[in-house]
Amino acid sequence: MKKRLFGKETMAVAMAVLMAAGAMTGCSSGGKETTEAAAETTAATTVASVSKEGQAPADEIKPCEIKFRYWADNTDYSQLMQDIIKKFNAENGKGITVIGEESPWDGGAYSENLFNAKMGGGDVDCATWKLTSTPLFVNNGLLADLTPMIDAWDKKSDIDENIYNIMVEAGDMQRIYVMPWNIQVLYVYYRPSIFKKAGIEVPKTYEEFLQAIEKCTMDTNGDGKTDIYGFGMRGAKGGQEPWGSFIYGRGGSFEDLTTPEAVQGMQDFIDIYQKGYVPPTATSDGFSEIIANFQSGLAAMTIHHTGSSKDMEKLLGDDVSAFPFPAGKSQWTSMGDTETVIFESCKNKQAAFEWVSYLAAGEGQKMWCEGTGNVPVSKSVQASDFFQNNRFMKASIDGQGHAGIVPILDTTTEWISNIWPNTVSQALTGSITAKQCMQTLQDGLYQ
Q1: What is the predicted pLDDT for the residue at 3?
Q2: Rounded to an integer, what distance in angstroms lies between the CA atom of residue 368 and that of residue 388?
Q3: In terms of Cα–Cα distance, which of 4, 357, 344, 400 is closest to 186?
Q4: CB neighbourhood size of 123 (10 A)
């Protein structure tokens, strides 16, 4: 049975989830009262229901101020956000004035500080967000249900349905409390020169991907030692994200890690380690190691996202490219996220929605994603030459339809930090079987 973060009694555990998620993915009451039926009404009825709850339709918004809290990873991003706010304030035509309040991410303490502020009656109207924060805030009645406004939004279809589904999964499984903004989708980096040496093309299926790993493992100078490994495996903390793609490739899922399909995906992971297709240090390799091994040519492929693409391109030029993790019986890749939310206490929710929707599919989306290198959620922005002509952005966009997240449960922090790396290490080195490994992982996540 999944355990979600309910009530104040699990607050301390939830905060640990926020802090852990921040370390991994950083540097990037009223809501529950809306019925499911309301989300299924027509756009006209939805607008009317929003108006009935005290929120004016978009064409009746009165001049107001919206307090918006955000974090920025560096001074350039900070200035960019101020430029976006300035442009919106000058051009929205509805008298909405966004007041930006910057707060440091501080390893995830941003979310904890925001929670404490809202529980104390703070007057922030909306904020930038991480999905891991959602259950705690929802179950304390702090987030506005955005479903009616999104259903009435004329640009709703500009965002992939899968992205909305992820937002729903992070909340109460029924409503959308989080507005998509920008994402980081994991893909496979590869070295074209090594592929050419191995005589292979970019794999189109999961089976071809496994074969590519084998063929790219080479002794290039004939001394009997491997000079190039087919894949840079991340066996330390954080490795659960690329690992998940192997599980889904065989038809498994996070819903039940003990199915025969999930166990076979784990066996594939074990096999590429035990057959010597990955560096022998893989059980302890983290982000820095897999990137260094790939950049040096020790590994032909590895998995990450656009956050590392500029350095890759600067160092390797044309000898680096990317493709989405290929589909097998199923397909999945991990999605990092940065979104926005509107708080239930906001007195001008429709005006706040004008702002967050501007970030999601307006000029604010284009400015932010072009300026930061994050992947846009807006299909129309994705279609521009700026993103389509970037091979790393293209691989990210092509992967968004099957992207997902590790379940956000009250066990997730411990599972990611300790259970997953320790258990998988035992399986890779032969101390336990794939089946035993997956049973332990299942028990640890869904205890």
Answers
A1: 39
A2: 16
A3: 400
A4: 11
The residue with tokens 């656009």 is 306
Cα 306 from Cα 295, distance rounded (Å): 15
Give the mean pLDDT of 385-394: 96
Average pLDDT over residues 297-304: 98
- Across 99-108, average pLDDT: 93
Q: What domains lie within the chain, and their CATH numbers?
A: 8-184+336-402 (3.40.190.10), 187-324+411-445 (3.40.190.10)
Residue type (1 letter), 366:
K
**In percent, how much of the chain has pLDDT > 90?**
83
| Cα gap 164→39, rounded to integer Å | 13
CA dist., res. 33 & res. 239, Å (int): 39
* pLDDT tens digits along 166-184: 999 988 889 999 999 999 9
312 band by pLDDT with thresholds 50, 70 and 90: very high
Q: Would you state the pLDDT for residue 107?
A: 86
pLDDT digits (tens, 9 = 90+) for 340-384: 999 999 999 999 999 999 999 999 999 999 999 999 999 999 999
Residue 161 CB partners (closer than 8 Å, separation 6+): none
pLDDT, mean over the chain: 89
**The tokens of 347 are what?**
């007195």
SS (H, E, C) the chain: CCCCCCCHHHHHHHHHHHHHHHHHHCCCCCHHHCCHHHHCCCHHHHHHHHHHCCCCCHHHCCCEEEEEEECCCCHHHHHHHHHHHHHHHHHCCCCEEEEEEECCCHHHHHHHHHHHHHHCCCCCCEEEECHHHHHHHHCCCCECCCHHHHHHCCCHHHECHHHHHHHHHHCCCCCCCCEEEEEEECEEEECHHHHHHHCCCCCCEHHHHHHHHHHCCECCCCCCCCCEECCECCCCCCCHHHHHHHHHHCCCECCECCCHHHHHHHHHHHHHHHCCCCCCCHHHCCHHHHHHHHHHCCECEEEECHHHHHHHHHHHCCCCEEECCCECCCCCEEEEEEEEEEECCCCCHHHHHHHHHHHHHCHHHHHHHHHHCCEECEHHHHCCHHHHCCHHHHHHHHHHHHEECCCCCCCHHHHHHHHHHHHHHHHHCCCCCHHHHHHHHHHHHCC
